[in-house]
Amino acid sequence: MSIRIPLRPLTRILDARRRGENPDNVEKENLRLRHEAMRDRMRLRAESRLLMVAFCFIVAFGAVGVKMAELATSEPTEPRIAYNGPTILNTRADITDRQGRILATNFATNALYAHPQDIIYPRRAADGLAAIFPEMDADDLYRRFTSDRTFIWLRRYISPEQEQMVHDIGSPGLLFGPREMRLYPNGSIAAHVLGGAGFGEEAVNAAEVIGIAGIEAEFDEELRDPTRSEALMLSLDLTIQSTVEEVLGGAMVLMNARGAAAVLMDVHTGEVISMASLPDFDPNARPRPLLEGDQADDPLFNRAVQGVYELGSVFKTFTIAQALELNLFSVYDMIDTTGPLRMAGFAIRDFSNYGPEQSVADVLIHSSNIGTSRIAQTIGRERQRDFLGELGLLEPTTIELVEGDSGRPLLPPRWGELATMTISYGHGLSTSPLHLAGAYATMVNGGTEITPTLLRRETPQVGERIISEGTSAMIQQLLRQVVTEGTASFGEVEGYFVGGKTGTADLPRPNGGYYDERNLNTFASAFPMHDPQYVLIVTLQEAVELSGPEPRRTAGWTAVPVAAELIRRTAPLLGLRPDVEYPLGLQLSSSSN
Amino acid sequence: MRFTTILAAIGVVGLGYWAYHQTIQTQMTDREVRSLERQIAAEAERLSVLRAEWADLNRPDRLRDLVAFNFERLGLLPLDPSQFADPAQIPFPQVVQENASTGDAL
Lengths: 593, 106
What we know:
Chain A has 593 residues and is an alpha+beta fold. Chain A is 35% helix and 19% strand. Chain A contains 17 helices and 18 strands. In chain A, strands 1, 2, 3, 4 and 7 form a five-stranded mixed sheet that branches. In chain A, strands 9-8-18-17-16 form a five-stranded antiparallel sheet, with helices on both faces. In chain A, helix 10 crosses helix 12 (369-379). Chain B has 106 residues and is mainly alpha-helical. Helix content of chain B is 71%, strand content 0%. Chain B is elongated and about 100 Å long. Classes of the chains: A alpha+beta (593), B mainly alpha (106). Chain A binds chain B through residues 78-79, 82-87, 89-90, 101-102, 105-108, 183, 185-187, 189, 238-239, 242-243, 246, 493-496, 568-569, 571-573, 577-578, 582, 584, 586-591, 593, and chain B through 30, 33-34, 37-38, 41-42, 44-45, 48-49, 51-52, 54-56, 58-61, 64, 78-86, 88-91, 93-94, 96.
């Protein structure tokens, strides 16, 4: 802003007067200039205001435009969160077998509860309920309905029929809360693997289903994950599992056994195709754990995983394998087997005498305790322990079951020379059948470590090498010979080239020593032996075969025929075709015209 | 001036109607979506019940009992190794000698 110019500057007025002009013109001129300047200023201000308004409009319309463009180009999405049905469904993922057949699923049902203050005729409601549910007592219910309580749980879950019957009582104080129930449609099949589920935190309109045992508990977090939609696929095969349980159940009756267990495992992938333990239970109505008596009699006890026993001569395979691997012996070397072998006041004897000297191969085939002990003496304590450790026999298995950790092998208190000798033929070290399955898989699969798993996997495990391929091939031959000419002659199944090793162990007394007539019979087998695909471990507790004049308690008479029957039944289901010579003349059918 | 005002007024009324119409339509679609979702939830529940039922009907124990019960009619036995065959055992289809039978006629 410049200094205000006077309208009638004296000098210019005087100049104008001198020239005879009207001095008012000067004033007019100056006034005009001043007005012009004022007008310019006003216009400038108005323009800037207009610009300001225009800017505001541009911003406002721009915002609308941007929003519209965003709406037009973005994917249409649901404006609200997904609608939740009246019941929260499938919050827990299903469990299926390796072919997608359901082993565990959920079932929507209702829980029954009562608001006693809303019950108008407590007597009638109590009588009605007692008539529907046999376990309820009418007088007890009446007492509770007339008490001061405002909320009573009556039943965890009820069937749709029972729900209708409760509706028919017509009492406004009896109410239903939606519940999700874990259902195991196959009943007791694979019961020990599945474990069971129960209710966790409970509210009126929902209850948490939690796994309480087996794989349900091991994968509880994953199964409960609400973002998970796919089922948990196990390595088990439902058909094979049911066949194994059926055959094993029959065997328990035939062989008068107290318990039985079987593990069928793929030697390359480590997948457990079937794991059975008898007696079993129904996971839909899981029994209470046995509080007194022998834990091994509890149906909940998983013999295949938790049952650690001295498994006997099946361990000889490991001793021989290590001796061959370390090049201490060849299979043709002769071993002194004159008995009994005395060591620290303990006599090691053989079941039957095959002469003063046997080859290493015959020591395994005829199952000589003395021969194996002598080989173990050569191997030595440290190397034996390291080898068994590499085979995973000194630690609990990492199987995907919560019970897995309780299957901790029992090591001798002092691993001295005597222990080395007894462990070489399977006494003094207790392991579970599952441990044995893993170790035998390593023996026959070419010599690499296998970790048993219950989860489906497509690819073979690439484990650490424990024995060379040559040793593994040798063990395959020896195990085959045990069946063709040794203690497991009943194990032959035509076309499947079964190989394996028997083990007959006396069960230990709880307070030291061993029972004379209570055995644990084991057959650790693999098939087909020229290219092993599966290992099968069968154990029978206190089995006795009574068809002969004398009761027979050896594994060769009890566990081996059971294993043979299992292989005969399951191998075709596993898709293995028997390798037999087909007589050319025999034709399936003739297409007669 | 007057003409544009009237035009603008008509425009406002038209747009108002259009906006209102859209709102109603949105609400109706919304309601439809909600009912569809309820249906989906019900169907999912039904599906899970059916799956459970299917698994229950196909449980090996039941099938085994059914096979035993219907043995006379069906004669089903467990799969056996002897049921595997070699392709060589399947006879070739017999070549029908067309000429031999029709030779006379020709």
